[in-house]
Amino acid sequence: MRIARFRFGDQVEFGEVIATDGGVLVREFEGHPFQPPRYTGREFPLSEVKLLAPVLPSKIIGIGKNFAEHAAELDSEVPEEPLMFLKPSTAVIGPGTAIALPPRSLYVEHEAELAVVIGRLCRDVPEENAADVILGYTCANDVTARDLQAQDGQWTRAKGFDTFCPIGPWIETELDLTSDNPLALKITCEVNGESRQFGTSKDMIHSVAKLVSWVSSVMTLLPGDVILTGTPAGTAPLRNGDVVDVTISGIGSLVNAVVERA
To answer: HSE of 50 in the Cβ direction (CA atoms, 13 Å)?
Structure first.
């Protein structure tokens, strides 16, 4: 199932994105996506709704340097254990909303990432049970002010600006990334149609199952919380007027323009 959060008129709802002979539709359902859907009977053409961030997480947990080639391009060693950081919920935007470049930074980069969406309250999850607490997966862009990251020595400011966590376009619930032989999803980033990043989920140093277990050993995870699993090599600066496309096979594409922050 592909779960979307969308606006139609002045209403914000959840729904299932489905392909039909007549085009792609969103089937509205009641309530939240952390329970079996209760469909309302209303359907909307996807082209007539505004897709929003598919969840509003209480927290976003990022994993740094989880691809060896990305760690190398930062002149950094691969950490033995998952390297965690937090992004505020206020950084979240959905597809089609602009990334705003802050005046305090002269070097903002894109980071295409696979995002894990948690489906239920959990803590101390064994790796072998990680699938039980995952609702699904979506695309993310861990936008980072690289100059401020180097200047501060810790990452809160560099990764915490408003609009610095685009996620979407929806949550895909039918992927298997926690088994002994997980899928190798292609993770790509294009800027203005130019290829910048390419990797697969199998290139990750620490697996999805390990990350869910590791993070949940530190903090309680709530439904809708998001874990960013790291980015492949190829991160590069964003400029005013750019259009960034993060695409993950089996999920979809997350597209955001870039503007100067007013």
So the answer is: 11
